[in-house]
């Protein structure tokens, strides 16, 4: 006879004795405390978030980096940035740790030199795509180590803010080509740069023409429809999709307006306040990046864009015979980084004629 059957468990759903309370009478097991555990852990480790600004030179990318750092959210944590913005000659990153209510965010913004100034702009996207893939490669190489760090430093670009020139017409062929490549590699949020040069009506007409162009050319900018997880996501992201590209104005100077110190651009007819939603949509951009979608941007980067990169690299390694060096990927070459579709994994001993295929 089954001895286990003879001794009913205290959690049995059968009628119990007066001294053994039924299962329903026990309190909840405390699953919601997991949220507190996650919060405590997040407070300890903090967050890393990396943004990149991309676009033609003179569209206000470097100014926007300063605007982000100087605007109210983390103004108190920032040293003063009074020096005028020099022309950006090479790709470089600025990091700051922002602390709010005990929670730390390490925000890194990567500024890029403007493109499109050359007579031949063929492949002007290579340095940007190369940088983004290089960060994926670095992460992958760390992940593949047998003895891994407990926390792999994350330098992957979680969001790329793409600056569209305020022509008022439509996207230029160069923007379309650039965006097409960028969207396959990273989350992209396009913005209408220097929006103070357009009237309200021009802005709206330009925005809807850009949206139409993106649709025609199958360019999926962030937040991508296919990653909406439920109806709430669809409603919230649907509203954002209608407002993208945000019409932004950048400024790194403060001015006194009605006794308030505001970030803005001083003109002959008044001050354009960057943090005033009646003047421009910088606040919508900042809220999307930090307040509402930071974690989602990180998740999509890890689960979709990095995953794509990883799959391509590891698939190539599966074509090689298993052995001690099976996961030992040779670091990607510069050519491989700009076009990961034809990445080749080479084990030193296995170099063969297939290498020439791409
Ligand atoms: N009118 C206007 N000028 C801007 C804006 N943002 C930046 N600028 C100016 O445009 C010039 C180039 O800016 P910069 O940030 O160096 O552009 P970058 O080459 O894209 O990095 C500077 O004189 C800025 O003061 C803007 O939103 N509106
Ligand atoms: Mg610059």
Automatic annotation (TrEMBL):
Protein name: Septin
GO CC annotation: midbody; perinuclear region of cytoplasm; septin complex; sperm annulus; spindle
PANTHER family documented for this protein: SEPTIN
Keywords associated with the record: Cytoplasm, Cytoskeleton, GTP-binding, Nucleotide-binding
Chain intervals with Low complexity compositional bias: 7-17
The keyword GTP-binding is assigned to this record: yes
Subcellular locations according to the entry: Cytoplasm
Transmembrane region(s): none
Quaternary context: Septins polymerize into heterooligomeric protein complexes that form filaments.
Residues of the signal peptide: none
GO molecular function terms noted in the UniProt entry: GTP binding; protein homodimerization activity
Keyword Transport (UniProt): no
InterPro entries in alphabetical order: G_SEPTIN_dom, P-loop_NTPase, Septin, Septin3
Classification via Gene3D superfamilies: P-loop containing nucleotide triphosphate hydrolases
Domain Septin-type G residues, every copy: 45-316
UniProt-listed PROSITE patterns: G_SEPTIN
Start and end residues of each stretch annotated as Disordered: 1-24
Domain of life from the UniProt record: Eukaryota
Organism for this UniProt entry: Dipodomys ordii (Ord's kangaroo rat)
Coiled-coil ranges per UniProt: none
Job description of the protein: Filament-forming cytoskeletal GTPase.
Gene: Sept12
Family: Belongs to the TRAFAC class TrmE-Era-EngA-EngB-Septin-like GTPase superfamily. Septin GTPase family.
């Amino acid at each position: 006879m089954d001895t286990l059957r003879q001794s009913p468990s205290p959690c049995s759903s059968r009628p119990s004795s007066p001294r053994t309370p039924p299962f329903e009478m026990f309190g909840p097991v405390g699953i919601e405390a997991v949220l507190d555990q996650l919060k405590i852990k997040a407070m300890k480790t903090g967050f890393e978030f990396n943004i990149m600004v991309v676009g033609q030179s003179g569209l206000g990318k470097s100014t926007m980096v300063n605007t982000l750092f100087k605007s109210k959210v983390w103004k108190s944590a920032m040293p003063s940035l009074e020096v005028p913005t020099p022309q950006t000659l090479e790709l470089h990153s600025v990091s700051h740790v922002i602390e709010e209510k005990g929670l730390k965010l390490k925000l890194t913004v990567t500024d890029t030199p403007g493109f499109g100034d050359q007579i031949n702009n063929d492949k002007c996207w290579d340095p940007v795509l190369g940088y983004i893939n290089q960060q994926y490669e670095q992460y992958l190489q760390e992940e593949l180590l047998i003895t891994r760090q407990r926390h792999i430093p994350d330098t992957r670009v979680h969001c790329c803010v793409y600056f569209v020139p305020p022509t008022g017409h439509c996207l230029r062929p160069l923007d379309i080509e650039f965006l097409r490549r960028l969207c396959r590699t990273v989350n992209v949020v396009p913005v209408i740069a220097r929006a103070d040069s357009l009237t309200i009506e021009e802005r709206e007409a330009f925005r809807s023409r850009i949206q139409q162009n993106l649709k025609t050319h199958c360019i999926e900018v962030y937040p991508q429809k296919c990653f909406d997880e439920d109806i709430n996501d669809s409603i919230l992201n649907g509203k954002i999709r209608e407002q993208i590209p945000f019409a932004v104005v950048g400024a790194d100077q403060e001015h006194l307006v009605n006794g308030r110190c505001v970030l803005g651009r001083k003109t002959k007819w008044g001050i354009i306040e960057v943090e005033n939603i009646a003047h421009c949509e910088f606040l919508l951009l900042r809220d999307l990046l930090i307040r509402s979608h930071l974690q989602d941007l990180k998740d999509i980067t890890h689960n979709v864009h990095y995953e794509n990169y990883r799959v391509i690299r590891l698939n190539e390694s599966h074509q090689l015979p298993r052995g001690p060096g099976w996961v030992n990927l040779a670091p990607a070459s510069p050519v491989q980084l700009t076009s990961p579709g034809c990445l080749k994994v080479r084990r030193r001993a296995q170099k063969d004629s297939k290498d020439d295929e791409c």
